[in-house]
Amino acid sequence: MEPKNVMIIGGGIAGMTAAQELAEAGLSVDLVEKSGFLGGHAIQYTCKATSECLQCGACSVEKMLKDVVENDKINVHLSTEIASIEKNNGYSIKLNKSAAFIDAAKCTNCGICYDKMKENDVIMQGFSKNNVPLYAVNREKIDENKIALKDICPEGAISVSDKASSEDLTSDAVVVATGFTPFDPNRKSVYGYDKFPNVISGMDLERIKRQNGFLARPSDGAAAQKIAFIQCVGSRDENLGNLWCSQVCCPYALRTAESLKHKNPDLDITVFYMDIQNTGKSFPVFYETCKNDIRFIRSIPVDIFPIENDNLNMRLFDEAEGTPAMEAFDMVVLSIGIMPNLENEKLAAQLNIALDSDGFFKNSDELNKTSTSNDGMFIAGTVQGPKNIAASMAQAGQAASGVLKYLGVTK
Amino acid sequence: MNTAQQNVIEKIDMATDIVVIGSGYIGLKAASQISEIGYNVILAPQHNDMGINCSIMDVLSTEIDRLKALETEVANNTNVEILPISTLVEATGTPGDFTLKFKSADSVVEKKAGAVIIATETAVNPLNRIYGLNPAANVVSLSEFENLLAAEETKKELQTNGKTVAFLVGFAHEGSPLLMKRVLNSVSEVVSMDGCSAYVYVNNIKVAEDGLERLYMQCRDTGAIYFKLEKAPTVTQENDSLTISFHDPVIRNDIELNPDIIVVEESLVADEANHSLAEILRIDEGPMGFLQKENVHRLPVNSNREGIFVVGSSRDVQNYSKSCTDIDNMVLRVKQLIGDGTKSIAAKAIVDREKCTICLTCYRCCPHGAITWDDKAIISSIACQGCGICASECPMEAIQLVDFTDAEMADRIKEAAAVEVADAPKILAFCCQNSAYEAGMAAKAFNYELPAGLQLIKVPCAGKIDIQYILNALVEGADGVLILACHHGNCKSESGNTYAKWRINDAYQKLAQVGIKKDRLEFATLASNMASDFARIIIDMEKRISQKKD
Looking at the predicted complex, does its ipTM rise above 0.85? Predict the structure, then answer.
């Protein structure tokens, strides 16, 4: 009997986990990823350990990526999107593959192209050494840089004349794991994200921490000393119509704050919040530690404006005094939340799966959130709703389990 | 030193009976799904999980019938043997071949099992005492209130006498989304009853779950009043009269309310059987009496021992749908482990039976419960995770890892120390393959600046770094030795990093005796994605040693 084939849409932590589980169960897997790299958002996150692990799960993503690229039952399609999908016996799928420009077989990951082209953003670097290849060409910048790129690679791995192509494949089941879109902080214009260099998002914070090992201010590269975290940016916001908690922002803000404090105990960190959400089963103990290290203010700041030296003044309501107050910080982190993927509507129409009222993919059975109205299709991870790395992985396992049951493989 | 034999493939028969401990809904569901994939189930009900415990469920009433049908389904399933209510009193063996003894009211039964699933329930703990309140007709726990709402008659009574209902939430403990959902469901019912109003005194509203923020807002929009406070309001209970007062920080006024009923939050606590189950099955207990340590390598359903899995509320306060996610993941693991009943597996560690004096050091230090014995120690190839802690701890040097023998490690150290780079101090970094080695390879891939004299030595776990390796490295000419382990709480073998640290402390003492400076040996912890920290740690060490040399 031919081994069953499953297509997984989305190469983030949920998609990779589903792929790995199904491959381990003996199935062959096509893992389709729109961008040039596997790993999704989660591969960008940094370790948040203090003197001990705080269970952020970022290292689990690293491990899963390694397992997936080493698994020969998983066929990875990078820079690829679904052109069409049709249900017959199984599914007939047409894939659109963008030109790759870099030949993975020839690329030695030396990084010469990246270093030489650093200024014009035409070569992108993966976040993990396990990304194969480690570099990708930015499709939007290729045309203006064709000449510069032509002979840049000593191995001849870059071919600027590479063309887009399409591929047909069939699969017996589909797992949708296309993840989320981070909230665009510009939609909360009162915080001046696009105007003030030292107002950054939680995603920016990960990038800065990864690059520098500390929290460097974008304005001058100096280490931030007095930092504010504003929670619920984009989440739990009636005015925006976002009636959900993103579930990950309190944990990431508290863990990051603790890990920064661990490296530099002199940091002055304040968290502005509505309600602090739990991190895990040792939360009561962890929260006590946080309360000793971090100042918590139960108030969401009104707005931010700049003062000298690119510092930031924040207007807020002082509960203790019962009056409006003003306080200066040298860096503000907006804890942006998890929004439905901007492409959910398009994809849902393609796949014939319903979305829920918030715009996430809707599960058909309340007791199994990987289920959809379309029998052979399963959903996993943040495409279904906000969740952390561990929950995305667990849900991907559940989707894999559902696929095996659907295909009659587990019996 | 001996050399381990080449990869010996062992063929092992795996028992295809699976024991499920706990027969609440999660236990029943686990039993049903395991039997669905073709294995027999032995279901061992615990003291507190007989019968329907809807009060701590968070599922819609429309789903309750479906859950109840599970009881009938499992009872009629010929592949499921249901034991009387029993306590696990003894467990021996290894994955594929566990022997469990259960004691019930009138008998002791012994069962063989390929794998063990723990599916205990949570228990409800009242918290009225923390608020200084005594249970009364008008001071009820959340569960009691839910029961009042559930029956037509008492609900009607509520509507007549309980016009104003106050809820106290989040001051006696942090709580969870699951408890919050139950509170909000009750609040929602109260505000929908004619003439009734709901006041919710709450600290952190735990809304980190699908649909909860919406439910919270819906309750508010339909009339529920929330007071978000950082500490509990003052509550007085005199005869039949109740008063709640607090200082409102927003309007800066004292506010007083005389509710007809106060509903006091409760907590969901770990099953009291967990502790003894952990002890008998030799698995790690986590925080708050739940099973499974907070170690990301265990997620979602693994314990520290292969073949013993923890699902649902045995490992954390979890709602029904998340518990079902656990069960699906557990089914994958069981299927992968047991397969069709035979398993071919290569040994990762081998005992030299000539050298073994059966001191049982290995049995005590193995974090995975992989060691049994006849007249000598035996390592279960299935249970063994290849960390090598036992090999390093064995006082007789009777254990060798197949992929990391002492002889090979000695060669590797010699070879690494022999590499000469002009003007660069020799730094040997022993790196755990799960974390630091990955970080080191990443630092290279991303072209971080690294000392020219750096050599990485891969170990399966920091727990496999013998004190002898450290001393050898220095004797062979290393200027600096680094031991790079996983962060505390992130060791795949739970305690490998702790063993490494102990050995380094020993090494410091030995080095001091021969006059070698402490700063030539360093211990640090890393994660696999910490390439820049890896580079920084090594460069710092190079700087220190170079200064000393100058």
Answer: yes
Q: Which burial class, exposed, middle or buried, applies to A263 when counting CB atoms under 10 A from its CB (0-12, 13-18, 19+)?
A: middle
Test mutation, B37, B70, B185, B296, chain A, max A CBs within 10 A: B296
List CB contacts of B523: < 8 A, sequence separation 6 or more: B482, B483, B484, B485, B500, B501, B504
Residue A273 near residue A306 (C-beta atoms within 8 A): no
Helix axes B467-475, B406-418, angle to 10 degrees: 30
- Residue ranges for chain A with pLDDT beneath 70: 1, 410-411
Domain A184-337, second-level architecture: 3-Layer(bba) Sandwich (3.50)
Q: Name every residue whose Cβ is closer than 8 Å to that of residue A265 and which is 6 or more positions away in sequence.
A: none
Confidence of residue B58 (pLDDT cuts 50, 70, 90): low
Identify the bridge partners of residue B227 per DSSP, sorted by sequence position.
Answer: B201
Structure tokens at A337: 């939340």
Report A:148-167 residues touching B (Cβ under 8 A): none
Quick check: helix, strand or coil at residue B226? strand
Query: Which residues are paired to B9 by β-bridges?
Result: B346
Q: Which residue of B has its CA nearest to A48?
A: B527
Residue B237 corresponds to which amino acid? Q
Amino acid at B328: D
User: What is B125-268's CATH topology?
Assistant: FAD/NAD(P)-binding domain (3.50.50)
pLDDT of residue B23: 86
CATH number for B17-122+270-340 (one of 3.40.50.720, 3.50.50.60, 1.20.1050.10, 3.10.310.10): it is 3.50.50.60
Task: Indicate the pTM of the whole model.
Answer: 0.96
Beta carbons of A129 and B37 less than 8 Å apart: no
**Element of type H or E holding B253:** strand B253-257
If you classify domain A5-98+164-179+341-406 with CATH, what class do you get? alpha beta
